[in-house]
Amino acid sequence: MTQTENSVQDHASEAADSAVVRVLAPDGSLAPSAAAEPYLEIIESLSDAELEGFYRDMVVIRAFDRQATNLQRQGQLALWPPSLGQEAAQVGSVRAARPQDHIFPSYREHVVARIRGVDVVDIIRVMRGLTHGGWDPTDPRNGNTHIYTLVLGSQTLHATGLAMGLVFDGKCGTGDPERDEAVVVYYGDGASSQGDVHEAMVFAASYNTPEVFFLQNNQWAISVPVATQSRSPLHKRGEGYGMPSIPIDGNDVLASYAVTRVALEEARSGAGPRAIEALTYRMGAHTTSDDPTKYRTSDEELSWVRRDPIARMRAFLEARGASSDFFTDVDAEADAVAEDTRVRTMQLDGIPRNLMFDHVYSEPHPLVDEQRQWLADYEASFEEGTS
Amino acid sequence: MTAAPGTAAATAAADEAGIENLPISRALNAGMRRALAENDRVLLMGEDIGRLGGVFRVTEGLQAEFGERRVLDTPLAESGIVGTAIGLAMAGFRPVCEIQFDGFVFPAFDQITSQLAKFTNRHEGALQMPVVIRIPYGGHIGAIEHHQESPEAYFTHTPGLRVVSPSTSNDAYWMIQDAIASADPVIFLEPKSKYWQKGEVDTRARALPLHASRLVRRGTDVTLVGHGAMVTTLLQAAALAESEGTSCEVIDLRSLSPVDYGPILDSVRRTGRMVYAQEAPGFTSLGSEVAATVMERAFYALEAPVLRVSGFDAPFPPAKLEGAFLPDADRVLEAVDRVLAY
Fold first, then answer.
1. In angstroms, what separates the C-alpha of A160 from chain B's closest C-alpha?
2. What are phi and psi for residue A279, nearest 5 degrees?
3. Which residues 6+ apart lie within 8 Å of B75 measured at CB?
4. Average per-residue pLDDT in chain B?
5. Most buried residue, A80, A302, B42, B53, by most Cβ within 10 Å?
6. A158 near B87, Cβ under 8 Å?
7. Taking CA A251 as the corner, what is the angle to CA A248 and CA A254, rounded to the nearest 5 degrees?
């Protein structure tokens, strides 16, 4: 047996370990692991509306994500990074954040952005080649959600710097949970190998930032398995930097919600940074340019279909007595969001040429001004020629 | 009056007189002190800059005066310093990062070129990045590898960054304040071999805006252009040339991006000849860019091609060879002779 195979097995057994916080079994039954005990009170306090809301979030984004994937296949987008399979980790964690918290996604957190108020078509605009950013994180409508970062792990430092600013400005640890702010930063198992993630954890620990490092371990960094990234479970990395670090079943939306909520409350209160490793699975391709059949087996993929986060939550809600009307209604909303996405994507057109010059600098810059003028004159010369 | 130069007492005293005689390192210190005092969102951050005052003592005394929340001794991680500075700028701060030596900036290269430089553009103007990155740069201090480099071309090649370098105490004092006041990221290259070079600082008013080049010596035969420590070398070369009957004009570039071509073109149109000198290797360098632009814009005024004097296109050598690697006044004069021979 090779070292890699051995490590994969170790990780599998780790995932099954009772240290992992899991509330719902894959079949949707309430079967809390030992590590979930401290969180059960939070879960029991959730209303039917909140629980159904989690399900609705997941179903709607999956429909949107499928639509975006289809749009790419039809040549409408340059690329799409699907979030298929990671809905529970994302919905639970972001629903645990307060409005005043700051969210730093990586580039697959479509439902995180949507829940915070970002128009999902703004994500589409990025992938259609109309903008690099997509939305304005300072616009209150976007819920303090920062834009996607494509260089893996870079955003963990930006999140940590902003969290340092919260410390310096006394915006955490005041004891007022309505006012105290925190930061959630998302990254993945591949990014966990980047130096920036390590430096972010060093700075976060040094300055005792109000910050939750939320790692979605979806098992694959494109074609490289997590075992190649680490010989030990990734959540242990956080402990190495001196921050409490908790592994959760990332396909259990209730575990994701409860653990993130506690971590954020602790961080906001001034107790310092926290790390969460959500064990989940990228059920689709890395992006629409990827072909997972080249590096993983259908047996593996099927084993994760049986742990599907949406089916799990649906079974749980059905057992609690959710009405069939509710599920019909959610499906209808999902269809409507997907259709609206298609319609509005097809209407997206036009990009002002000056966009590339206008914000290179905030203050005037002679070279940029000169080139903007040159291009305008150059194009005007053709118009003159035809008139 | 015996207050130590550059201290609060000396600065207060100088505010009345308006003139202080300070080495560049103290002028930078005084400029940063003023920026810290005038705007409580200004932060200094870097390795060893607080208790120690920086390995060159440029930030000496500032942590004692402004506290550990304004002058941060950071962990030893350059990418971490710049990356967290970006986040602090998002939170409304104006971070001034010190990179300890030129050759240590590269671990932060991604955060500078892919993140900091592009942030405002990526956000379509919604976020500004008023971040200064101070880098002691250049040779002539006899140091070991990674401690004597001139990395300016990497940054001047990157849209979104401004790059400047003072050569005098007065410029050091004002340019650091103007860099901190800029809404854009500024790479601030400090000529470390001149940290101890004294000069007059007029604390009452700035002489020039941040991005202006400056005529520092009048002449009629050849225009010499450079920045940072090289300006001293060009002035030495001009003095030697004068004793041989050649009159050299000297221009201090000051701003490496954007370049203020006005004074350079004015000068070349009068002299018809130009030599650009720099410590950095010559291939695809600032000298290449300025030479090409001058030839495009002043072609009919030129009596000879613009010549460049550079460090060689080899890694910076062991210090015992730096005298042969770095352009000195004689190498500048050799180019002056060649440009006059056309």
1. 6
2. -85, 110
3. A199, A202, A203, A206
4. 95
5. A80
6. yes
7. 70
Please list every residue in chain A whose beta carbon sits closer than 8 Å to the beta carbon of residue B262. Answer: none
Q: For B75, which of A131, A154, A206 is closest by C-beta distance?
A: A206
Instruction: Say whether residue A136 is in contact with chain B using an 8 A CB cutoff.
Output: yes
Q: Which helix (H) or strand (E) holds A211?
A: strand A211-217
Do residues B73 and B49 lie in contact, with contact meaning Cβ atoms separated by under 8 Å? yes
Residue from the list B86, B118, B126 with its beta carbon closest to the beta carbon of A158: B86
How confident is the model over A78-86, as a mean pLDDT? Answer: 97
- Of A102, A108, A114, A286, which residue is the catalytic one? A286
Q: Is A86 exposed, middle or buried (0-12, 13-18, 19+ CB in 10 A)?
A: buried
Q: Does A182 touch chain B (CB under 8 A)?
A: no
Residues from chain B contacting residue A132 (CB–CB below 8 Å): 118, 121-122
Which helix (H) or strand (E) segment holds residue A140: the answer is none
CB B160 within 8 A of CB B118: yes
Burial pattern B60-74, b for ≥16 Cβ within 10 A else e, equals bbbbeebeeebbbbb
Q: Is the ipTM of this complex over 0.90?
A: yes
- Quote the pLDDT of residue B69: 96
Q: What share of chain B is helix, strand, coil (3-state, %, to 5)?
A: 40, 20, 40
Interface check for B94 against chain A (CB to CB < 8 A): the answer is no
Tell me whether residue A307 is one of the annotated catalytic residues.
no
Report pLDDT digits (tens) over B207-219: 899 999 999 999 9
- For A28-63, the pLDDT digits (tens) are 999 999 999 999 999 999 999 999 999 999 999 999
How far away is chain B from the Cα of A135, in angstroms, using its nearest Cα?
Answer: 7
- Report CB contact under 8 Å: B258, A138: no
**Six-digit token pair at B131?**
């971040």
Residue B64's beta-bridge partner residues?
none
Q: Give residues with Cβ within 8 angstroms of B64, minimum separation 6.
A: none
Q: DSSP assignment of A160-179, as one string?
A: HHHHHHHHHTT-SSSS-TTT
The tokens of B312 are what? 């060689």
Q: Is B241 on the interface with A (CB under 8 A)?
A: no
Residues 6+ apart with CB under 8 A from A324: none
* Residue A363: count of CB within 10 angstroms of its CB: 12
SS3 at position A278? strand
Gap between the Cα atoms of A304 and A311, Å rounded: 11
Cβ-defined contact of A158 to B91 (cutoff 8 Å): no
Residue A187's φ and ψ, nearest 5 degrees, are -155, 175
Return d(Cα A127, Cα A337) in angstroms, integer: 18
Spatial distance between the Cα atoms of A50 and A364, rounded to a whole number of angstroms: 50
pLDDT digits (tens, 9 = 90+) for B223-249: 999 999 999 999 999 999 999 999 999
Q: Residue A15 — pLDDT band, cuts 50, 70, 90?
A: very low
Strand-strand pairing, B71-73 and A245-249:
unpaired
Would you call A266 exposed, middle or buried from its count of C-beta atoms within 10 A (0-12, 13-18, 19+)? middle
Six token digits for residue B54: 């920086």
Residue B288 has pLDDT above 70, yes or no: yes
Q: Are B163 and B107 in contact (CB under 8 A)?
A: no
- Given CB atoms, is A159 within the 8 Å cutoff of chain B? yes
With CB atoms and an 8 Å threshold, state whether B77 touches A365. no
- Residue A269 sits at the chain B interface (C-beta within 8 Å): no
Note whether B123 contacts A154, CB cutoff 8 Å.
no
∠ CA B73-B77-B83, rounded to 5°: 95
DSSP bridge partners of B231 = none
Q: Active-site residue A378, yes or no?
A: no
Residue with tokens 């209808």: A332
Rounded distance between C-alpha atoms, residue A103 and residue A185, angstroms: 6
List the single residue in B with minimal CA-CA distance to A138.
B126
